[in-house]
Automatic annotation (TrEMBL):
GO biological-process terms attached to the record: riboflavin biosynthetic process
Pathway: Cofactor biosynthesis; riboflavin biosynthesis
Coiled-coil region(s): none
Stated name of the protein: 2,5-diamino-6-ribosylamino-4(3H)-pyrimidinone 5'-phosphate reductase
Function: Catalyzes an early step in riboflavin biosynthesis, the NADPH-dependent reduction of the ribose side chain of 2,5-diamino-6-ribosylamino-4(3H)-pyrimidinone 5'-phosphate, yielding 2,5-diamino-6-ribitylamino-4(3H)-pyrimidinone 5'-phosphate.
Enzyme class: oxidoreductase
EC nos: 1.1.1.302
Keywords: NADP, Oxidoreductase, Riboflavin biosynthesis
InterPro entries: DHFR-like_dom_sf, RibDG_C, Riboflavin_Biosynth_HTPR
Length: 267
């Protein structure tokens, strides 16, 4: 079995105000959403699309697993699933439960296979099988994939999508995504990427859905051609460009050679 990571209690205390509380004081109507990723100094998540790139050092990697332990679900885009073949489980000492992996796959690009790491870990009881949010209607889902996911405890969740552009690319409204996850009983969601997921969630109309942002910054430039976090530019009513988003309530925490930036998009 993979060795478990440890995260110091003092570091956990620093992060506490940034994390969902086990017993919130008011009853929520949507999940607590944490947006988190690791970036280079040139805002890259990876060297190129489809290339798994290690950015986090050991300390911030343990932090990511600690943050996973504090969320009911971890959400990624299908390109990250295909590129990284991730475990999507929590490998930290003391974790009380495993997070539910959520895959955003509107066009059903992922064909589940028993050899996929995420399914293998579900079989071993070291993680949960994914819920796959798709724009494909229930009656059009491939029966073998439905059966395989269900055998592992996962499932497809068909969702209304809007098509855009000549390619007919389907897009979900994040309000709809988090609403459906809330109705599944998932009260906290950690969004891990990749680039398209993060850039679309950072559109101003979705800012109110994001409760916390935790970014690991690694001391490296990946160079051009990478998957970059850079949301669409916006303009004010006079047509003057303004920042797409800015954090408030900011704190910076060194973890080994990395620095972790925490903040919020709204008061
Ligand atoms: N450094 C990090 O923290 C980190 C985290 C995650 C992924 N990555 C890297 O990022 C790369 C993948 O990023 P990417 O941008 O190519 O892909 P992605 O993981 O963001 O997935 C893109 C796909 O997700 C779906 N999608 C995204 N937004 C959607 C929306 N609003 N509605 C419906 N569907 C939507 C679409 O199918 C789209 O093709 C990989 O190389 C991976 O290694 C790095
Ligand atoms: N925090 C972080 N630092 C990194 O250097 C890096 N490359 C990722 N990438 C996030 C992405 O979601 C990956 O797919 C998962 O980090 C895979 O991780 P696991 O196999 O589940 O441990 N995230």
């Amino acid at each position: 079995m993979t060795e478990l990571l440890t995260f110091p209690a003092a570091s956990a205390t620093l992060l506490e105000p940034r994390l969902p509380q086990p017993k919130p004081s008011t009853s929520p109507s949507r999940p607590f959403v944490t947006l988190t990723f690791a970036t280079s100094l040139d805002s890259s998540l990876s060297l190129a699309p489809g290339v798994r790139t290690r950015l986090s050092g050991p300390g911030s990697k343990a932090m990511t697993h600690y943050i996973r332990s504090r969320h009911a679900a971890i959400l990624i885009g299908v390109s990250t699933l295909i590129a990284d073949s991730p475990s999507l489980n929590c490998r930290i000492t003391g974790a009380a439960s495993q997070p539910r992996p959520i895959i955003i796959d509107p066009h059903l690009r992922w064909t589940p296979n028993p050899a996929d790491k995420v399914l293998e870990l579900a079989r071993l009881g070291h993680g949960l099988a994914p819920f796959v949010l798709t724009g494909v209607e229930a009656q059009s889902l491939p029966a073998a994939s439905v059966a395989l996911l269900e055998q592992h405890g996962g499932k497809y969740i068909p969702l209304a999508a809007t098509s855009s552009g000549p390619s007919g690319r389907m897009r979900f409204d994040w309000h709809v995504v988090f609403d459906v996850l809330f109705r599944e009983g998932l009260l906290s969601v950690m969004v891990e990427g990749g680039g398209q997921i993060i850039n679309s969630l950072l559109e101003p109309r979705f800012h109110a859905l994001i409760d916390s942002i935790i970014v690991t910054i690694a001391p490296t430039w990946l160079g051009q051609g990478g998957v970059v976090v850079s949301p669409s530019g916006i303009r004010d009513s006079a047509g003057i460009p303004i920042p797409a988003a800015r954090l408030s309530d900011v704190s910076w925490h060194p973890f080994g050679e990395d620095v972790v930036l925490c903040g919020k998009l709204h008061p």
